[in-house]
Design brief:
mainly alpha; MetI-like fold; 2 domains; 0% strand
Length: 299
């Protein structure tokens, strides 16, 4: 019986052979190298001396001596400090509001027999498949008096349809017996959400929150479209302006990095932009796989 079961067992459930383990290990090493080497190259360039960066064609693989002048220079004048504060503010407020709105809407759409649930869901999915476009979005933001306002950096993107579908699927995967038990105890929908659903949904909340936070942190186009720039520019917009400024980066990006090798200054900005999200990710890693896989089971 056990022999028949072993023969009928799918290949992916069988014990891998040593050769296959070696291939997997080699693939992991190659992937890690492809991911880590660019990060190291950027960081090493940012802390190398100007002479070394210029001598190596704009890059440095291993600095002969540590030089943090690029970081002190990019923060000089307050442009980067203010842009960093704008990014933190937009990411914090936007992620909190997006999580709240997505959670409430996903919970409502996950319950059976909700009034107009299917038409509302189809209308939301329609906007995902056929987005309005840049000009109609700009006109809506302008009509709502949000142009050149901090709220314009997070209100137009408050609900992401992909995140909504993932969270809705997660809520649908919660056993119906728990909802029935809550109703028998006299709990309404709001109490059921806060007392039963949310404590069981830490994984999906962490995953969706990470998606929203990364999206807000990395977004640069919304500030270019919905504001006049200046004091409302987040870090990503300043970084883009410096990278694309060409031969006159100081004037066009608002930074004063005179005397610093261009690639060294760009590398320092990239490191500053990456570190906050990279530091938060390990704390959410244990929720990541569980949240995505569970939320994707139902739709």
């Amino acid at each position: 019986m056990s022999g028949d079961a072993a023969r009928t067992r799918p290949v992916w459930l069988g014990k891998p052979k040593p050769a296959m383990n070696a291939v997997k290990a080699a693939a992991v090493v190659v992937i890690l190298a492809l991911i880590s080497i660019p990060f190291w190259l950027v960081f090493a360039t940012s802390v190398s001396s100007d002479a070394e960066v210029n001598a190596n064609g704009g890059w440095s693989l291993w600095p002969d001596e540590l030089d943090f002048s690029a970081y002190t220079n990019v923060f000089k004048g307050g442009t980067i400090g203010h842009a960093l504060w704008v990014s933190v503010l937009v990411t914090g407020i936007g992620t909190a509001l997006s999580l709240a709105a997505t959670t409430f809407l996903a919970y409502a759409l996950s319950r059976p027999n909700v009034l107009a649930g299917k038409p509302i869901l189809l209308a939301i999915l329609f906007t995902f498949l056929f987005p309005a476009g840049m000009i109609p979005s700009f006109l809506v933001v302008t009509d709502l008096k949000l142009f050149d306002h901090l709220a314009a950096l997070f209100v137009p993107a408050m609900i992401n349809v992909f995140n909504l579908v993932i969270m809705r699927g997660f809520f649908q995967g919660i056993p119906e017996e728990l909802y029935e038990a809550a109703r028998l105890d006299g709990a309404g929908d709001v109490r059921t959400l806060f007392r039963i659903v949310l404590p069981l949904s830490k994984a999906i909340i962490a995953v969706v929150g990470l998606y929203y936070a990364v999206g807000y942190w990395n977004d640069y186009f919304r500030a270019m479209l919905y504001t006049n720039g200046g004091s409302l520019n987040p870090l990503s917009t300043v970084l883009r302006g410096f990278v694309t400024a060409g031969n006159n980066p100081n004037a066009e990006s608002g930074l004063d990095v005179t005397g610093i090798a261009p690639m060294k200054a760009i590398s320092a900005l990239v490191v500053i932009a990456i570190v906050p999200i990279a530091a938060a990710f390990p704390f959410l890693q244990r929720y990541f796989t569980k949240g995505v896989m569970t939320g994707a089971v139902k739709s």
